[in-house]
Amino acid sequence: MNKIPIIMDTDPGIDDAAAITVALNSPEFDVQLITTMAGNVTVDKTTLNALKLVEFYHKDVPVAKGADKPLLRNYEDSSYIHGESGMGEYEFSPHQRREIDLHAVQAMKEVLEKNSEKVTLVAVGALTNVALLLMEYPELKRKIKELVIMGGSLSSGNVTSAAEFNIYADPHAAKIVFQSGVPIVMAGLDVTLKALLSPKSFETLPSLGRSGTMLHSLFSSYRGGTPDKGLQMHDVCTLFYLLYPEKIKTEDLFVEVATEGPAIGATVADIQRKYHKNPNTKVCVDIDVDFFNQWFLEVVGKIG
Ligand code: BDR
Ligand code: CA
Fold first, then answer.
1. Stretch 19-45: mean pLDDT, rounded?
2. 234 catalytic per annotation
3. Which residue out of 130, 222, 234 has the highest number of ligand 1 atoms within 8 Å of its CB and is therefore the one to mutate?
């Protein structure tokens, strides 16, 4: 089987932890690098959390620390959703792992350069690292197969009326990324607020072994939804898209990012196609939620 080479740019974060679980344990993916940034919690914490997860799964995947703040605006975290550490109350075993001695952007550059085939970038945090990469090394755009983003929304936001957290966290970076010409898939709130981990799936997790028990503990203190109504699995949708694109409905649209005013961080799509003939983004608009739950439990169950 030809594995999909990926770089994961992430800010763990509880749904990030679920996404990293899937990426590291699905035979279809070849995770070559995990990069971090300031997002749900500070970059020191997101890096530590990524290292804890790589250690938890005993994987040999490098972690590189990236941006400690957005390009222009002030940093605002999301610890009210993910807890002070970003990993709820779960106690990971002590370990000696360290991040590599390269900034995330340099590490991404090296991975893109050394691969003869194109690499998929899975970006599930603020887009600061990705924007820096595209600005500093525009010649590497051709090495990116596609950029699958968790972020944005065609309607309302989850951090302000208009903006989703990852785009709001660094709207200037997001603007650069959406204007870059790199093929973009946007898994935003339009699908991620539908793709909830059901109460039944949540209850099943501890019976699935060590990984399910860890995820159950993380999701127990997560404030993105509730265990009895459903938990928001935002970042996991990017990997689901890569494996099962036929289970997600998409629309090709031109998307721009607002960088000022009350709509700062909003992704504005030209749905009427009045201003832009050529779309720049494949926007995910619907998802097979039952299949998504079944698949997620299967992946976790196989880890044991
Ligand atoms: C996004 O914001 C973060 O809190 C989550 O990890 C996800 O990437 C959802 O808006
Ligand atoms: Ca995230």
1. 98
2. yes
3. 234
Write the pLDDT tens digit of every residue in 104-129: 999 999 999 999 999 999 999 999 99
CB of 218 closer than 8 Å to CB of 90: yes
Asked, as a colleague might, if the bond just before 13 is cis with ω within 30 of 0, I would say yes
Distance, in Å, from the CA atom of 276 to the CA atom of 192, rounded to the nearest integer, reads 26
**Of 179, 185, 139, the residue nearest 282 (C-alpha):** 185
Query: Tokens 């109350």 belong to which residue?
Result: 89
Helices of type H across the chain: 14-25, 43-56, 79-82, 104-114, 128-136, 165-169, 171-178, 189-192, 199-204, 210-220, 236-243, 289-303
Q: Tokens for 34? A: 């995990």
Q: Is the CB of residue 40 below 6 angstroms from any atom belonging to ligand 1?
A: yes
Q: Mean pLDDT for the chain? A: 97
**pTM, 2 dp:** 0.98
Ligand 1 atom at minimum distance from 169 CA: 2
Q: 36 C-alpha vs ligand 1 centroid, how far in Å? A: 13
pLDDT of residue 91: 92
Q: Distance from first CA to last CA of the chain, Å, rounded?
A: 23
DSSP class of residue 74 equals P
Cβ neighbours of residue 207 closer than 8 Å, sequence gap 6 or more: none
pLDDT attached to residue 1: 81
CA–CA separation, 30 and 278 (whole Å): 32
Cα–Cα distance for residue pair 168/217, rounded to 1 Å: 28
**Average pLDDT, stretch 258-267?**
98
Specify whether the CB–CB gap between 237 and 187 falls below 8 A.
yes
**Residues near 2 by Cβ (< 8 Å), separated by ≥ 6?**
none
Q: Which ligand is nearest to the CA of 14?
A: 1
